[in-house]
Amino acid sequence: xxxxxxxxxxxxxxxxxxxxxxxxxxxxxxxxxxxxxxxxxxxxxxxxxxxxxxxxxxxxxxxxxxxxxxxxxxxxxxxxxxxxxxxxxxxxxxxxxxxxxxxxxxxxxxxxxxxxxxxxxxxxxxxxxxxxxxxxxxxxxxxxxxxxxxxxxxxxxxxxxxxxxxxxxxxxxxxxxxxxxxxxxxxxxxxxxxxxxxxxxxxxxxxxxxxxxxxxxxxxxxxxxxxxxxxxxxxxxxxxxxxxxxxxxxxxxxxxxxxxxxxxxxxxxxxxxxxxxxxxxxxxxxxxxxxxxxxxxxxxxxxxxxxxxxxxxxxxxxxxxxxxxxxxxxxxxxxxxxxxxxxxxxxxxxxxxxxxxxxxxxxxxxxxxxxxxxxxxxxxxxxxxxxxxxxxxxxxxxxxxxxxxxxxxxxxxxxxxxxxxxxxxxxxxxxxxxxxxxxxxxxxxxxxxxxxxxxxxxxxxxxxxxxxxxxxxxx
Length: 475
Ligand SMILES: [Fe+2]
Ligand SMILES: [Fe+2]
Prior knowledge:
By secondary structure, the chain is mainly α. The protein has 24 helices and 2 strands. The chain has 2 domains: about 200 residues, Hypothetical protein af1432 (Orthogonal Bundle), CATH 1.10.3210; about 170 residues, Hypothetical protein af1432, CATH 1.10.3210.
């Protein structure tokens, strides 16, 4: 039997760390919002609503704790199906995902067809687009099932890696099941669906419906789906809370995250260094899973960065900083559609603009955690170059810390070793030779020499067999 969540994963360290687990997880949930093109703060607002419902139901503390983290991390598996979605629909996976969630695909409908027509086959000739839309409409249920199954499998894997309790993992895996047995992927019915999954499904839909059309429309939508999508008892509880003006309290106030941090059931769980590293590793998996061309990119960059850091004599807190920054530097890529990430040819101007936003986004997400300001700065600078030719800030020389320089060198090295859709990866020697042209103008000489020394010793960093589309100055 799996031990208790707090005693198991986190409780032994209540006084060891200074950062709360909820602070980290709620901030990183903004990265998960990007994968679904949800309004920023979707997971946090879902948590606010779901915890109100769970508390009103009188769930015990331990169950509420599992619900709390499952609500924040409900979309942890969502990056896994982005490539498949992009391939099948042929458009912006993020925009499609947002629309798909609100549509009832169980029955053919005009609105479903309109949605497919709007999103599928972007840029294709009319005949090709019509064929694609028809094919998707005919196979809509199987297609949706496949997407949800992929997301569930990934969510379970990453959730366990983080150390979530089994009740949270189970809830994340079942959150698209419907009360009437016509949901996804297992067609569970009624009380066979875990109660936490039923609450999460209702809470996330309340936020999505409300974000589209307001809270009154959201209440009408859940009432209309009571007994089909949602557990009627939960809908009754939500309606009662709404009538008492308690369901939507603080919703839309801009204070949702602060309120959610105060909602953590039981004692505040503090995260120690090992737990923070484990969460960083799990989120690196989420980012790398978005595209088949990013297999293990972040793990490879981490390995290269750690070798450079050790080679130049770094230790302790500075080493921790490099470890986490190298794993989290591409968080913002979760907002880049797969039609750009997986594109075999050159990017056009607008596509480049989207790519260039990702370091800033990575920094913005991490800056929500007060003790992570330095980490946020380093990830935000991973595409800056010493001569000011990088992005997003065009920072120069002394403006870039040693940690930023290490991650930048490791990132370029990783990108050069990895295969891309339009060219194979290079050998270590060829990658180092190519990088040498940028030393010391763009890349730090000390970091480059440290990398070259590590590489010469044959250390096993940067996954040579990975395919990776990474849009940098070499791409
Ligand atoms: Fe990047
Ligand atoms: Fe990268």
